[in-house]
Structure formats: C-alpha cells, structure tokens
Amino acid sequence: PDLSVAAAIDHLREVFDGFQLMVIDEAPGARPGLDRKIVASFVDAMGGTVEPKFGWTDVARFSALGTPAVNFGPGDPTIAHSVNEHVDVSEIHEVYAKVSAWLDAAENF
Fold this sequence. Notes:
Blueprint: H1 5-15, H2 37-46, H3 59-64, H4 89-104
C-alpha cells in the first residue's frame, strides 16, 4: 500500500520482464489515517499493531474520500471468507468489550 498504482504497475512490469502483462483492475492503497487522533486512539485501545490487509475492503472507499477507517475484528484474517473460517466465541466477547469501552470514552471523539 506504500506505492502509487503507477509505481506498482511499473514494479510488476520489472518483475515479469519478458512476459506479457495485462492489468485489468487497479486500486490505490487504502490509508487508514494513523495520523488522526481517533484512529490512533482506537489502535491503542485495541492493543493491536497496524498491518496491511491484502485484498480489497470497504476501507478503500473511505480512504478515497479522505475518511480514516480500519479493519478490525476477531478471528484469523488469513482464513476469512474461506471454507475453514471460524472464530472462537471468546474472541467475539473480547472484541465487543474493547470496542464498547472505546466508544464509551468521550475523549476519543
């Protein structure tokens, strides 16, 4: 997500030099807005680290509008939307408690 679309395509052309390459879709990286207080406070409250999410999510829509957004939830993102997707109920309760506490904290807004 740290490259422009043009730079990413240039990189692909370099890596696959000698092969025919056709880009049929493109989208810029979605920036979560980590420089914004509300996003930073959310990340801190959740106790997580920020990592890139590969694949398209609605964060891209918000990013295109200049609105900070993050993907967050229980479970292993590497198996999301797959046949083996599963989440322990305890993880759902933990996420609910953390997000509820963050939303209740007026200083976040």
